[in-house]
């Protein structure tokens, strides 16, 4: 693959997988043919498209619509995780895949910090008592001086560690491999260190992408290794948590509480036991979505489109074998658009 992308010849065709064209693409529309494409028409248009913007990132239509020949040279998703996007034909193709890294990190870190404070200070119990007009004084936990283990060495995990440390929490980061002197967070523990870290953690935060290593990671065995009364916060992927085991750990008191923003099935079914699990906060996959986030997502794509069109290195290039953007990758000369 060349060190720099080959700029497209003529007017490139950009398909946007969405029911309505998102805001913020005016600069792209000036130099490209931009077509808003519902799922039903995706298969007929993909073979002649150079770029695909997956705005509806929860779609399951792409594998069946992917052409046997031709197709986009570049696929961009308006999400951080790519586990729902990737499939064998895309993995095996020459198409570059990029994500929307840079939009979600700090909002998710703020969500985690908010949940830590809310759980430590029993805000939810206070609200329940207020509704019942009950005045009940009780002590709560200190946040400063507590211990957190954040699983996921990418930008979201790193932003979470920095934010928790600002609260006086001793936050440790677990990544795929060990790093002794990481410039952002210092020591990054390897994944094999997780079992040894769990018994000391008051807060365990999952911020990892979904990979074979993290599928079903948080199960009864892991919950049993955690300190009794510790808390789990999941902002990574739903299938990383065995939900039945989580419910049992909350019921038994092994876990003191949990906050989940992602689930195996979304929306969470009305008959899921999680709705009634004690000391569990359910939020509808919204921890990263702040006011103005759609404009931010469009800006990331527009910037990368300008890079692709000019033949410059692109941002947020996904390693299709790993299933995420390597943490030390901002732009990659090898990960570029180009002729198939």
What features would you describe in this structure?
With 340 residues, the chain is of the alpha/beta class. It has two domains: 133 residues, NAD(P)-binding Rossmann-like Domain (Rossmann fold), CATH 3.40.50; 178 residues, Rossmann fold. It has an eight-stranded mixed β-sheet with strand order 8-9-7-6-10-11-12-13. The longest helix is centred in the C-terminal third of the chain and has 18 residues. The chain starts with 12 loop residues before the first strand and ends in an 8-residue tail after the last strand.
Quick synopsis:
With 340 residues, the protein is an alpha/beta fold. Helix content is 28%, strand content 18%.
Question: Layout of helices and strands, plus pairs?
Answer:
Blueprint: E1 13-17, H1 26-31, E2 33-37, H2 42-45, E3 51-54, H3 62-65, E4 74-77, H4 88-92, E5 96-98, H5 105-120, H6 123-131, E6 147-151, H7 155-166, E7 170-174, E8 179-182, E9 186-189, H8 194-197, E10 203-206, H9 220-225, E11 230-234, H10 243-252, E12 255-260, E13 280-282, H11 293-310, E14 314-315, E15 331-332
Parallel strand pairs: 1-2, 1-3, 3-4, 4-5, 6-7, 6-10, 7-9, 10-11, 11-12, 12-13
Antiparallel strand pairs: 8-9, 14-15
